[in-house]
Amino acid sequence: MSDNAYLSISGVDMTFTKGRTVNPVLRHINLDVKRGEFISLIGHSGCGKSTVLNIVAGLLKASAGGVIVDGREVNEPGPDRALVFQNHSLLPWLTVYQNVELAVDKTFRGVKTKAERKDWILHNLEMVSMGHALHRLPSEISGGMKQRVGIARALAMEPKVLLLDEPFGALDALTRAHLQDEVMRIQTELHNTVMMITHDVDEAVLLSDRIVMMTNGPSATIGEILDVELERPRDRLALSDDARYNHYRHEVLSFLHEKQRKVEPMARSARASKAPEALSA
Ligand SMILES: Nc1ncnc2c1ncn2[C@@H]1O[C@H](COP(=O)(O)OP(=O)(O)OP(=O)(O)O)[C@@H](O)[C@H]1O
């Protein structure tokens, strides 16, 4: 662990065992994240990205090794690590305001007065441009808006670490771009420490300070880490013509599609089903 690590994942192994089936998913995951850093985790489907995030969140216990956040070992979930999932997890019977209120009351009751808590809820909803829809139910707003509320709820808990599991994955391209810009703007303002899973190479390059690339499983580990040294604020249009941006993009694509090329199970089974023919020919 380096001296200035705010979040430290050290020697993490994870093996799932069910009956006699043993699935070694992660091996020797070591990562130090600085305070205020935005890290993306990228890798092929099933390599273990969510497992890493769930261990940091305290929802899973690593088979070996552990996680330290701001000097404290992670043993269980806590409000210092807020999670946002791909599919919003808003309570359908509560309004936009009440969904955030629930988290704020849980985190700050006894610390902030009722009036302060109200201001804080409004502030966070305004930060994600949702101040106009406070009294709507989740069923009355769009997918992008729900995701915004989920992000406001997470930010309102003032977590030490924000954990984003494909937060824009279920959104259409335009909404996704808009929300990415919003997250970048908030990040510039608040300097959150963020760990985000994504499958989108452009998203990873645009948003991250570092991109952590995972090898294929079983026993996946960190293959390479790419420093993205693009100054902030970042402008997606200007960057699309930027040679450095394209270089970073190329590095990630080359890792995923050359160094860690994945043979999809469907292709394997297609070959397997052809095998008898080949044998009989
Ligand atoms: N709670 C669990 N119990 C048993 N096996 C699990 C559990 N969680 C994950 N796994 C297994 O661990 C492996 C990695 O899963 P994980 O969801 O972490 O991958 P991922 O990289 O996030 O995948 P994707 O990109 O498709 O979301 C898979 O083989 C999965 O079946």
From TrEMBL:
Membrane listed as a keyword: yes
Membrane topology term: Peripheral membrane protein
TM ranges: none
Protein name, entry field: Nitrate ABC transporter, ATPase subunits C and D
Main subcellular localisation: membrane
Record-listed E.C. numbers: 3.6.1.3
GO molecular function: ATP binding; ATP hydrolysis activity; nitrate transmembrane transporter activity
Annotated organism of origin: Hydrogenophaga intermedia
Alphabetical list of SMART domains matching this protein: AAA
Biological classification of the source: Bacteria, Pseudomonadati, Pseudomonadota, Betaproteobacteria, Burkholderiales
Cellular localisation: Cell membrane
Record bears the keyword Protein biosynthesis: no
SUPFAM superfamilies with a match to the protein in the record: P-loop containing nucleoside triphosphate hydrolases (SSF52540)
Domain ABC transporter per the UniProt entry, residue ranges: 9-241
Alphabetically ordered keywords of this record: ATP-binding, Cell membrane, Hydrolase, Membrane, Nucleotide-binding, Transport
Family in the record: Belongs to the ABC transporter superfamily.
